[in-house]
Design goal:
With 160 residues, the protein is an alpha+beta fold. The chain contains five helices and seven strands; from the N terminus they run βαααβββαβαββ. The chain has a seven-stranded mixed beta sheet with strand order 1-2-3-4-5-7-6, with helices on both faces. A hairpin with a 2-residue loop joins β3 and β4. α1 packs antiparallel against α2 and α1 packs across α3. The longest helix has 16 residues.
């Protein structure tokens, strides 16, 4: 049975392992190998994971004692953004992603009107999942330019 809880600093190594295992599978064939290597170093370092736990909202999904997924949220300008939602490849299709997303939305401060995320436009599997959960293409976004390879998606939390 999957249980979702707030991450603790003692979870850093297990959270990193989720990223180090999932990223190469999720992005294989979608981005250059250098993007994967650089992303693993930048966003899945011990320091980056600790910062996410300490300064944002990081939740983990556990199956017994093993962590099988994670979600990380934080602020960008005036918006709440979901930076990461990853489930180990061998655990996908079991409802872990939905459980993490539902828990992430529930963990946001009361009155939060929407949740944003950015996603690779070529990542059809992720886009399909997010659309199935109620996300649409965002019209209002933070000022950060995502270029042509990424797009903003949003879920209206007033309707969820």
């Amino acid at each position: 049975m999957i249980a979702v809880r707030r991450a603790e600093l003692g979870d850093v190594d297990a959270i990193r392992q989720i990223g180090l295992t999932t990223w190469p599978v999720a992005y294989a064939g979608l981005v250059p190998d250098a993007f994967i290597t650089d992303g693993l170093a930048q966003w899945w370092s011990v320091e980056a994971v600790e910062r996410g736990i300490s300064k944002g909202i990081t939740l983990v999904a556990a199956d017994g004692d093993a962590l099988v997924g994670m979600v990380g949220l934080g602020r960008e300008e005036d918006s709440w953004v979901m930076w990461k939602l990853y489930v180990l490849p061998d655990q996908q299709g079991r409802g872990v992603g939905k459980a993490l997303l539902d828990a992430a939305i529930a963990a946001l401060p009361d009155g939060t009107p929407e949740l944003l995320l950015d996603v690779l436009v070529a990542n059809e599997q992720a886009i399909g999942f997010y659309r199935s959960q109620g996300f649409t293409e965002a019209q209002r976004t933070p000022s950060r330019d995502l270029g042509d390879e990424l797009m903003w998606m949003v879920i209206d939390l007033d309707r969820t």
